[in-house]
Write a structure and sequence with these properties.
The complex is a heterodimer of chains A (271) and B (519).
Chain A (H helix, E strand, L loop, with lengths): L22 E12 L2 E12 L3 E5 L6 H7 L10 E9 L2 E2 L7 H7 E4 L10 H12 L4 H14 L3 H4 L12 H14 L4 E5 L7 H14 L4 E5 L3 H7 L2 E6 L2 E7 H6 L4 H7 L5
Parallel strand pairs in A: 3-8, 3-9, 6-7, 7-8
Antiparallel strand pairs in A: 1-2, 1-4, 4-5, 9-10
Chain B lengths: L13 H31 L7 E5 L4 E11 L6 E6 L3 H4 L3 E5 L3 E5 L5 E5 L5 E8 L11 H39 L4 H22 L2 E5 L5 E5 L3 E5 L6 H17 L2 E2 L4 E2 L2 H32 L4 H13 L4 H24 L14 H26 L2 H9 L4 H29 L3 H6 L26 H11 L3 H35 L9
Antiparallel strand pairs in B: 1-2, 1-5, 2-3, 3-4, 6-7, 6-10, 7-8, 8-9, 11-12
Helix pairs in contact in B: 1-14, 3-4, 6-9, 6-11, 7-9, 8-9, 9-11, 10-11, 11-14, 13-14
Classes of the chains: A alpha/beta (271), B alpha+beta (519).
Chain lengths: 271, 519
């Protein structure tokens, strides 16, 4: 396998790219501010298709903000404003032709705290499918089973699909939420610290799941846990103060960071 | 497992603990005392109390129920109040007797109490049943009593028959004739039915019972005015309990008599519950929609902040003010216009232009609107952002997120709002007096006539019934037990309404184990 080239530190406007990888998402010069307060500054990077990309950085560095920009969840905040472009398979997600609900179906998301809806396990997974409508009962059953299988939960819940989703444990709930996101067949799955509220064993299961899923879709993982980023991701972006500091193949970034700032962070010598 | 650790309170905090615990104790005592008082007085009203025959020192004899005893003013001893009945003989039903003047008292088993449609209770002895036979020798009391029972039973059968014919045959025929005056067949049938009813009436009317007060005055009492007869001194405890149960049942199921001082309160129960249910149906959609706008739709600016403060303050406006508003806007404003447009034939007698069920429900809905809005809004605000974002992230629109995730989760909070609204509305009397409550409305607002629910009708209400019975009867003393019983009933009705809503809320919460993980 050819070694990806080392990257130069981010400079304004230049897109960090890995020529050997097909890119799925491209962020071009993205700046984002809440009520005039900048949260992201001029970020440009390409997310390779069918890989796990991790965003790491200290609290408040903007990694979650960047993630939420990718499915336009920041639209909900009336004070948010942005500059720059985000291209999903070459199409600007802010362009008028893109309906926001369609975008969010293509770019799924899993949150920090497991958030199953107060419905049965089955209904949770079927939620996104019901929004689209037009599925037969048989087809719906098949997709629900497939999604639960893909999220490694089917074996644990197949006998109690009608039970309340809130009766599951925290780890099971998080896998259920992943199944719910997978059921609508997204192209990209955003994971916002998906294991930070879970115990070590559940965390391990989620990490295995993430590694297994990348054959089917592109995953972007926000985590504050550097070991986790090192364990599951192929590429890692380090953000600080709303800026992209370094973006490299994970092995390189952790073993041989090119910048002092990155090295200080990953070795725990943060100012 | 969690275990609470009990620490002894530091000495310096002792007085604090006493003060706080003391105020809890006083509050509980007062509440308990209140409930105990209305329960004892209200429920005791239906107990067939023993009747005492009292011989006074001056040779006079009276018979009655001892009600209470008070010390004499300015001298030793006390005097006792007896309920003696027999308004038609004595012109009064109460008698104060100084205890020192009582020569003897006993409780003869042959004393009878008759509950009558006119003149209230009779207390005395039976002489004979049926038309007076000049040659009749005095029958023994037992035989007369059982004959009276049999005749009363027969009367009741006749009465039921008459009511049944009136309800099932007479009324539909009258409607047919009114709708089509040239319907010969219906007219003839109507004449037949009237004939049958007249015959029944005559059969009921003929009979009399001869009764005698304890001091020997005789009276011919038409039997169809006697509702009920009992011999309290001859009854066993079990019989008394059965009589008590029947008394309670009659109170709950019959209409009021005798200027509301006796009889039952069924129309008032029905009116209260119906009004509260209508109020809930009106206030819930409005309140929930308003809360959704305030919390989910509107831009959270200064204006919304002001609106929110205004809504919260509306909850503190005295209820009579809402009554005045209801009278001015609903009754005289909207109601009069409705009459002009749709009920012009009936004018000048108003249909909707006077107080009625609809206007009362609307007024109370307005009164309880802030409660529902505030409770729903708090419920909406408590729903975690992750739930909304989770739905949005799956491609749901804001409306889909609201209807499929947010509202189902906020349902218990909405029901809390409805519970609070019911608690407030069911006890309100002041605004109702302006917008539709009636002293006496024997016809409940629901019946078999189209449109079945008569929103324009006046209705009776337990709260107003209490007020009216306590202050506007002929004999306040006699009405007092009815007041207590009605008050107890009002408390129970509100409890029941609340309990229904609480169980409903519990059901929705428990459905998804929300009790374990309340958001």
């Amino acid at each position: 396998m050819s070694r990806p080239p080392r990257l130069q530190p981010a400079t304004s406007g230049s897109i960090i790219d890995f020529p050997s990888e097909a890119s799925c998402l491209a962020i071009e010069g993205l700046s984002l501010a809440y009520g005039g307060k900048p949260a992201l500054r001029d970020i440009s990077l390409r997310v390779p298709r069918h890989r796990v990309t991790a965003f790491i950085g200290p609290s408040g560095c903007g990694k979650s903000t960047l993630l939420r920009a990718l499915n336009r969840l920041h639209d909900l905040n009336e004070e948010a404003s942005h500059e720059g472009r985000i291209l999903l398979e070459g199409q600007d997600i802010h362009s008028p032709e893109v309906a926001v609900d369609e975008l969010r179906r293509r770019v799924g998301m899993v949150f920090q705290v497991p958030n199953p809806f107060p419905m049965s396990i089955y209904e949770n997974v079927a939620f996104g499918l019901r929004l689209q409508g037009g599925l037969t009962r048989r087809r719906m059953d098949d997709i629900v089973e497939w999604a639960l299988e893909a999220a490694a939960l089917w074996g644990e819940v197949k006998d109690r699909l009608r039970a309340s989703a809130w009766s599951l444990s925290g780890g099971q709930q998080q896998r259920l939420v992943i199944a719910r996101a997978l059921a609508v067949r997204p192209e990209v799955l955003l994971l916002d610290e998906p294991a930070s509220a879970l115990d070590p064993i559940s965390t391990l299961k989620i990490e295995e799941l993430i590694r297994g899923l990348k054959s089917q879709l592109t995953l972007i993982l926000v985590t504050h846990n550097m070991q986790q980023a090192a364990r599951v991701s192929d590429y890692t972006a380090f953000l600080q103060d709303g800026e992209l500091v370094e973006y490299a193949p994970t092995d390189n970034l952790f073993t041989n960071p090119s910048l002092r700032r990155t090295e200080n962070y990953i070795t725990g010598r943060m100012a | 497992m969690k275990r609470r650790i009990r620490r002894p309170l530091p000495r310096s905090e002792g007085p604090w603990a006493w003060l706080t615990a003391g105020s809890v104790a006083v509050s509980l005592l007062m509440l308990g005392g209140l409930l105990l008082l209305i329960s004892v007085r209200g429920l005791g009203h239906f107990w067939p109390a023993p009747v005492t025959l009292v011989e006074l020192e001056d040779g006079r004899a009276i018979a009655g129920r001892a009600v209470r005893e008070l010390p004499l003013v300015g001298q030793a001893g006390s005097e006792r109040l007896y309920f003696t009945g027999n308004r038609d003989l004595d012109g009064r039903v109460w008698e104060w007797v100084p205890v020192s003047t009582i020569a003897s008292q006993e409780r003869p088993v042959d004393l009878v109490v008759l509950e009558r449609r006119r003149y209230g209770d009779f207390i005395g002895r039976l002489v004979s049943v049926g038309p007076i036979e000049p040659t009749a020798h005095p029958l023994d009391q037992k035989a007369v009593w059982s004959r009276l029972q049999a005749r009363l039973q027969a009367q009741m059968t006749l009465r039921d028959e008459r009511d049944r014919i009136e309800r099932d045959t007479l009324r539909p025929l009258v409607q047919r004739v009114e709708a089509n005056p040239s319907d010969r067949e219906a007219r003839e049938a109507l004449a037949d039915v009237n004939e049958t009813l007249r015959a029944l009436q005559a059969a009921m009317h003929g009979e009399v019972v001869i009764i005698e007060s304890v001091d020997g005055r005789r009276l011919e009492q038409p039997l169809d005015e006697v509702l009920h007869a009992w011999r309290p001194n001859a009854m066993s405890t079990v019989e008394k309990m059965m009589a008590w149960g029947q008394g309670v049942w009659r109170f709950l199921s019959e209409g009021p008599r005798d200027v509301n001082a006796s009889g039952g309160v069924w129309p008032a129960i029905f009116g209260t519950v119906l009004m509260v249910v209508l109020m809930s149906l009106l206030v819930t959609p409005f309140g929930v929609l308003a809360a959704i706008y305030l919390n989910e739709v509107a831009h959270q600016g200064r204006m919304i902040h002001l609106v929110r403060i205004a809504v919260r303050n509306l909850a503190g406006v005295p209820s009579i003010v809402y009554g005045v508003f209801g009278l001015g806007v609903f009754v005289y404003g909207i109601g009069s216009s409705l009459d002009e447009w749709f009920f012009n034939d009936a004018l000048p007698s108003p249909t909707f232009g006077t107080g009625g069920l609809l206007w009362a429900s609307l007024t109370l809905a307005l009164l309880t609107l802030p409660v529902v809005i505030v409770a729903t809004e708090e419920g909406l605000a408590r729903i975690p952002a992750e739930q909304r974002e989770g739905a949005l992230a799956l491609g749901a629109t804001r409306l889909e997120t609201l209807t499929r995730v947010v509202l189902p989760m906020a349902l218990p909070a909405m029901l809390t709002g409805v519970i609070l609204a019911i608690a407030r509305a069911a006890g309100e009397v002041a605004p109702l007096m302006l917008v539709g409550v009636a002293k006496l409305a024997p016809q409940v607002p629901v019946d078999g006539e189209f449109p079945f629910l008569h929103l324009e009708r006046k209705f009776m209400h337990l709260g107003y019934h209490i007020y009216d019975t306590a202050f506007h009867g002929n004999d306040v003393q006699a009405a007092l037990p009815v007041v207590y019983a009605t008050a107890l009933l009002l408390v129970l009705v509100i409890l029941l309404l609340n309990l229904t809503a609480i169980l409903l809320r519990h059901y929705f919460r428990a459905r998804h184990g929300v009790l374990a993980r309340q958001p």
